[in-house]
Amino acid sequence: MTPLVEVRGLRYRYDDGTLALDGVDFQLWPGETVALLGPNGSGKTTFVHHLNGLLRGPGFVSVCGLEVNGRNLAQIRRRVGLVFQDSDEQLFMPTVLEDVAFGPLNLGRASAAALAAATAALAQVGMAHAAGKAPYHLSAGEKKRVALAGVLAMDPEILVLDEPTTFLDPPARRHLLDLLGRLPQAKILVTHEPHLARALASRALFFTAGRIVADGPVAAILTRFGWDPAAGETAELGR
């Protein structure tokens, strides 16, 4: 089996001199959901921004058999759908429908085809009723679903979600979790939430100081690094 994503020896240093990635190796397999865990500033978001060419550092990155470079960037961005932590960074058109159609139009689809893809994606995330609304009138949970619809409208093979439950109340979190669980794409989740990692991923990586320091089953990684509240409570009770 060929990995959907393959990364070897990836490094990245910001302009201020900060070393954000320090030799990252990674593979994502078809149908797999992987959670990226680790403290703030450990390199998780920097890493996923390399998967569709938003950032470019020394090392090898390929997506669906295509090396991430200037020549392949348009094809790669059709295959990798990135949902940002803050939905307001993705929603900028006058109406929800126009926002979701923007991606397909930008890929060169005809107007009718782009609108059809946008309408179908909004229905998929339960937001068809909001097609004519202005995005800034939506709740945080609704914005997140519309941002996801904008990615789904481009029919990606891989979904990359950066802290997808940020700003969401408990009902909106449950709705999003259920929605993500039903989507067939391979997924990479950047998250601080053990519940989300457990519910959606079978494998987790732990980042520290720009390196992947552990890779394994979600439960084992959560316990090893003390990110499992239930395990912590059990340990305290046993003392």
Task: Write up what this structure looks like.
- This protein is an alpha/beta fold and 239 residues long.
- Helix content is 36%, strand content 24%.
- The strands form two sheets. A six-stranded mixed β-sheet has the order 6-7-8-3-9-10. The chain has a four-stranded antiparallel β-sheet with strand order 2-1-4-5, covered by helices on one side.
- The longest helix is centred in the middle third of the chain and has 14 residues, at 111-124.
- It is globular, with a radius of gyration of 18 Å.
- It starts with a strand and ends with a helix.
- Residues 232-239 have low confidence and may be disordered.
Distance between the termini: 47 Å
Low-confidence stretches: 232-239
Q: What fraction strand? A: 15-25%
Radius of gyration: 18 Å
Strand adjacency order, main sheet: 6-7-8-3-9-10
In short:
The protein has nine helices and ten strands. It is α/β, with parallel strands linked by helices and 239 residues long. It has a six-stranded mixed β-sheet with strand order 6-7-8-3-9-10.
Write the layout of secondary structure elements.
Layout: E1 5-13, E2 19-28, E3 33-37, H1 44-48, E4 60-63, E5 66-67, H2 73-79, E6 80-83, H3 96-106, H4 111-124, H5 140-152, E7 158-162, H6 170-182, E8 186-190, H7 194-200, E9 203-208, E10 211-217, H8 218-224, H9 229-237
Parallel strand pairs: 3-8, 3-9, 6-7, 7-8
Antiparallel strand pairs: 1-2, 1-4, 4-5, 9-10
Helix pairs in contact: 3-4, 3-5, 4-5
